[in-house]
Amino acid sequence: MNRRFSFIIVFILLAGFAIYAYLGGFNKVQVIRTTSRPVFIAGRYFEGSMKDKTLGTYFQETAKLLEEKKITGYLGNIYYNNPEEAHDSIRALIGVVVPDSLAPLPAGFELRKWPGSKPVVQATVNAHFFLAPNKLYSKLFDYAKQNKLNLKKQYLEEFPDARYGRVQAQLAD
User: Fold this and answer.
1) Strand (E) positions, the chain?
2) Whole-number pLDDT of residue 103
């Protein structure tokens, strides 16, 4: 029985590593300094605790609108603070990157613009959007610290497909 239990544990661990690898968990994050391009995000504004169920609801509703083709674009968010520094409090626009400012908006959505032509630090990774954010932010912050760069506390997240993520932060003046 003990040998069988050990086999099961090893099997579960190997399966977990395989799934993590399949989702891109071992893929390298690329970080560069570049210039932003204007991005339009249609979404719902949220302010509160990251544990608030409303936040999860906004993400789910947005994904459903995309799936049902009630909005054209891909997942994207703007965060107006760093939740880790704000003690689990978040201010964010949860939504969809839309082609332009004329895109029709679902009920309850508003349009905001990420400015173009600004110096930014950008992190990208080929990984599933479940894994990408943690990988992207940690590398983005490491890069800024190593290069003594001050970042504005605003972040653009984009997930043009389920297996690719990008985060940008503007350089502070």
Assistant:
1) 30-35, 39-49, 74-79, 89-98, 110-114, 119-125, 151-161, 164-171
2) 86
